[in-house]
Design brief:
The chain is an alpha/beta fold. The chain has a single domain, classed as L-arginine/glycine Amidinotransferase, Chain A (5-stranded Propeller). 21% of the residues lie in helices and 26% in strands. It has 6 helices and 15 strands. A 3-stranded mixed sheet has the order 2-1-15, sandwiched between helices. A 3-stranded mixed sheet has the order 3-4-5, covered by helices on one side. The protein has a 3-stranded mixed sheet with strand order 6-7-8, covered by helices on one side. Strand 9 and strand 10 form a beta hairpin. It binds glycine (GLY).
């Protein structure tokens, strides 16, 4: 059974962190409706969704992926690269402590979960504006006893590693090569996004289906032509907060 931890959208999402996007008005009610559809999609794909209470004072708190990395053997509570997001971890640590032994990234390390891509026993950590070498090194020490290989992957031009590359099938990555070098992922096959849709590489692979945003029809067509099974969701309002599909859940085996 897969558990998907999510969190309701904060009333203050309009005050979210923005790095590469211009601030635009966000309709909280539309964002909440889209978020509920996303949760419904996870349920239909076989996840048990555990929705945490809203954190009214933490604008980015819907993006739970950034707070932790959950693997079969342990969970790592992360330390965000931005101060405004660090308080998001308290409630996540409480929720995850029922499922896993917890480890914590500490100062001077920073890692956002959006920078962590696991492919089998390899864990790639994006070297972005949010995650640093000290954070990746702490992850390496936590994961070494369990046989994971932790590799640093430089990214440029985007917020997180998973803005640039995500896994969409066995050993198959959807990638924007302008933001990350494919040579970082030697054992994998690649599907390139349509170049007119730079944000199109973030997809969520769940139980053999890829949840994919309606925002990128050209890349959607490429995926369909490749035979990838898709579920399309509209997360356009959440995207204005510089949050992508994977950001909205923490998914792991019970
Ligand atoms: N607004 C998402 C982030 O910057 O972390």
């Amino acid at each position: 059974m897969l558990i998907a931890i999510t969190r309701n959208v904060s009333d203050r999402i309009a005050y979210c962190e923005l790095t590469h996007l211009k601030r635009r008005p966000i309709d909280v009610s539309v964002a909440r409706t889209q978020h509920r559809s996303y949760e419904q999609c996870l349920i239909e794909l076989g996840c048990k969704v555990q929705t945490l209470p809203t954190e009214p004072d933490l604008p980015d708190s819907v993006f739970v992926e950034d707070t932790a990395v959950v693997l079969d053997e342990l969970a790592i509570i992360l330390r965000s690269g931005v101060e405004s997001r660090r308080a998001e971890t308290d409630s996540i640590a409480r929720a995850l402590s029922s499922y896993r032994q917890l480890f914590h990234i500490t100062d001077p390390g920073t890692v956002d979960g959006g920078d962590v891509l696991r492919v089998d026993r390899t864990v790639y950590v994006g070297m972005s504006g949010r995650s640093n070498k000290a954070g990746a090194e702490q992850m390496r020490q936590f994961l070494k006893p369990y046989g994971y290989d932790v590799r640093n992957a430089p990214v440029k031009g985007c917020l997180h590693l998973k803005s640039a590359v995500t896994q969409i099938a066995e050993q198959t990555l959807l990638i924007n090569r302008n933001w990350v070098d494919s040579e970082n992922f030697p054992a994998n096959k690649f599907i390139d996004i349509d170049p007119s849709e730079p944000y199109a590489a973030n997809a969520l692979w769940v139980n053999g289906t890829v949840i994919y945003p309606s925002l990128f029809p050209r890349t959607q067509r490429i995926l369909e032509e490749t035979g990838i099974k898709l579920r399309i969701v509209d997360v356009s309002e959440l995207a204005k907060a510089e949050g992508a599909l994977t950001c909205c859940s923490l998914i792991f085996e019970r």
